[in-house]
Amino acid sequence: MSNEADLKVVARDVQGKGASRRLRREGLVPGIIYGGGEDPVMVAVRHNELVHEAEDESFFARILNLDLDGKTVTAVVKDLQRHPAKPFILHVDFQRVSAHQEIRMTVPLHFVNEEKAPGVKAGGEVSHMLADVEVLCEAEKLPEYIEVDLGGMEVGDMLHLSDLKLPEGVKLAALSHGDESEDAAVVSIHAKSAGAAEEAAPEGGEAAEPESGEE
Prior knowledge:
Layout: E1 7-11, H1 17-25, E2 28-34, E3 41-46, H2 47-54, E4 64-68, E5 71-82, E6 89-96, E7 102-112, H3 118-121, E8 125-128, E9 132-138, E10 146-149, E11 158-160, E12 171-172, E13 185-190, H4 194-200
Parallel strand pairs: 1-4, 2-6, 7-10
Antiparallel strand pairs: 1-3, 2-3, 4-5, 5-6, 7-9, 8-13, 9-12, 11-13
């Protein structure tokens, strides 16, 4: 784990809606750091810095080093509140974590080799049922994403949660209790619908012959 700070945060004493509005006018986002057996700390972070970090999907699935007034705090993002109509972040929640603490986090799925899949080469279409999954693992083993390889899939094939290849020490929250009904579908390759096939083919099933102008 790198010691370089991902974000600089400052402690704040004043709470309430009025104080939060003042912080936002100053280009700061109010937040909180909690957990880890310590008291919660109200903090603020630069809006532009937070937005920049949040553009990377791994920001939500990795351990962060927060520089809290010169002290490093390891934490994960547990909640990010955005304005419903404007491109602003309103509040951020960080949870303290230690290297060997088990945490529950949502991580994205990265689908690879779609274009190489035999089913796609045969004209099939890919359907993604899930974009991310919840995992359970020690904080130091948290993956930034889980790779889903479609390279061997044929038309009619479907991958479920139980088919995913997980890093060592990582398990899926949905399958942690052994309930097979929670083994959700992740991705499939299916034949194109009749309507789609008809749109792709020329009307009448063959190309129209050009008019020669001769009788």
